[in-house]
From TrEMBL:
Any one GO MF annotation of this record: sulfur dioxygenase activity
SUPFAM superfamilies: Metallo-hydrolase/oxidoreductase
Presence of keyword Transit peptide: yes
Cofactor (UniProt): Fe(2+)
Alphabetical keyword list: Acetylation, Dioxygenase, Iron, Metal-binding, Mitochondrion, Oxidoreductase, Transit peptide
Catalytic activity: S-sulfanylglutathione + O2 + H2O = sulfite + glutathione + 2 H(+)
One of the record's GO cellular component terms: mitochondrion
Protein name, as recorded: Persulfide dioxygenase ETHE1, mitochondrial
Top-level EC class: oxidoreductase
Record-stated family: Belongs to the metallo-beta-lactamase superfamily. Glyoxalase II family.
Transmembrane regions: none
EC number: 1.13.11.18
Record lineage: Eukaryota, Metazoa, Ecdysozoa, Nematoda, Chromadorea
Chief location of this protein within or outside the cell: mitochondrion
Amino acid sequence: MNRPILFRQLFEHLSSTYTYILGCPITKLAVIIDPVIETADRDSELIKELGLTLTYGLNTHVHADHKTSTGELKKHFPKMQSILSEKSGARADKYVAHGEKIKAGNIELEARATPGHTNGCVTYVNHAQGMAFTGDALLIRKCGRTDFQQGDVHLLYKSVHEQIFSLPDDYILYPGHDYTGQTCTSVAEEKKFNKRLAKSEEEFVQLMKNLNLPYPEQIEKAVPYNMRCG
Ligand SMILES: N[C@@H](CCC(=O)N[C@@H](CSS)C(=O)NCC(=O)O)C(=O)O
């Protein structure tokens, strides 16, 4: 019998960020996706309680709204390597290219480049469990903004349609944030109900131009920190 993977979805309330832990039940090797500095102690304690050893700390992109805790987590798990897209232009221990696979025991994540929110955004797909971690490329019923960090509205539309909406309808999508209390969605739901991306490209571009969102509160500290944090 195939034993299920260990999986946790964790929330950091200052930036409304989701952090994910995926662990192999046999080898006890694990990865963490988008960990936040404020919750580094909570996350490392949980990983230890679950008997896991972190091998990789993945940032889906260079975050603008919070500091990553991959640097902090390396103090608890010295063998852990931080990972970012090769297109991120930031410091990391290892860089991933589109199509590359990240493995930790029986956990396998396919890196799919989904630029547009930033140029180094990656969606990680776990085909065995039918899950994808979209970072800020796709949020539940909406998507990441495109007004800073090399944001590109046309590229985001293409990324989501070609790399996320092309996944099987029943794959569960786990976002980088949610501001309304929701936790996950599915490819079928987002293709039908996403208020931005279920529209034509022209409508999407107009809508994104008129979002008028204030900049994230931590942007000035977070971006330079995340650019140099390995
Ligand atoms: N108020 C938050 C920032 C909210 C925000 O801008 N979120 C980003 C993702 S983090 S850079 C985004 O793309 N939002 C899209 C949207 O439509 O909400 C803070 O100050 O941290």
